[in-house]
Amino acid sequence: MRSEKEKMLAGDLYDASAPELQAELGANHRWLSRYNGALAEGPERWHALLKERLATVGDGAVIRPPFHCDYGFNIHLGAGVFLNFNCVILDVVQVHIGERTQVGPGVQILAADHPRDPAQRATGLEFGRPVRIGRNVWIGAGALILPGVNVGDDALIGAGSVVTRDVPAGATVVGNPARVRG
């Protein structure tokens, strides 16, 4: 029988209230407290702290505190990635952000999802769908990237956009829902 963590990592329905996952959340909250408390310490210290918790942290990757995430261990940052203040990543499954991608303040990258059927949703089970953001992407302030979305290399996502579908490489998308701008 698989653990709730194994189910979560596989993208299957899982119980987030399971003791094993609550312990992981507690460990991450303690790390986030240290990370967010390091605001005055600067990028070198932030980078060192990121390497303690995240799956992959490329050279020169920076996340300006405050930052919030579910677990941390599912987040992969390429070299030179920059996330501005107040970003949120719900990383119940893998979230990849490619090299030299720039993310504006208040952006939310959401891999966590919930069943659409109300009876199933009422059970409290949830699941995740991986998010992949390519290289050299620019995501404007306050944008939302929804579960399962893939963003191609060199794309641009306008501020405040809600990205519900994959974004082709080199495309500019804006709006709610985000649409390719010609």
UniProtKB/TrEMBL annotation:
Keywords: Acyltransferase, Repeat, Transferase. Residues 5-59 form the Maltose/galactoside acetyltransferase domain. This is Sugar O-acetyltransferase. SUPFAM superfamilies: Trimeric LpxA-like enzymes. The keyword Repeat applies. CDD domains: LbH_MAT_GAT (cd03357). SMART domains: Mac (SM01266). InterPro entries: Hexapep, Hexapep_transf_CS, Hexapeptide_acetyltransf, Mac_dom, Trimer_LpxA-like_sf. It comes from the Bacteria. Belongs to the transferase hexapeptide repeat family.
